[in-house]
Design a protein that fits this description.
The protein has 196 residues and is mainly beta. It contains 2 helices and 16 strands. Strand 13 and strand 14 form a beta hairpin. It is globular.
Length: 196
Amino acid sequence: TKLSAGYSFGTLGCIVRKPPGSCYAVSAPHGLGQGGRTVYQPAKVKCDEIGSTDEVQECRQMDAAIASLDYYYDAGLAYIREIGAVAGTHDVGRDELPLPVAKRGASTGLTQGSVVAIHYSGLAANLERFQDMLLIDGTGDEFVDHGDSGSAIVHPAGEDHNLVVGLLWGKAPDVNRYGVATPIDRILEAFDVSVM
């Protein structure tokens, strides 16, 4: 689902809960903006206002932000359109590679690929350096494009048993086939949240 904060946009990755129970949206900072910024879904009009950016973590090892959800009422089911129910998270191990994954982005929609590296470092399309991230090799020529940032990277462990493994940070320079993601456990720890 597309999110915007001002003139930038990204994708809502997933819904998380912070003790004692408040709900937040997780996405990329360049989609949610800096702290206090009003967040809209999907466009910047008053009726689409859903909350405001609460916390931002931007460094070479993480690119994530959370936004409070003013109008979200916990229905008890986390669901990603075209992927299905989210059952939890998974920390990808080296012995599982290549691990099949999917994501649904605001720009490219549903795409599939595999996590092929878990401690990947390099230079992204925006020429920013990153380190210790997940590298995803997409099936086909287009796994990611601008506007997909913040998408949940999900491992389909079974029917309606999808596990979030990362949050899409960006793509490789000059090619849309390779995506780079922050491992989800790093994000959950930094914000003291859990995936719903």
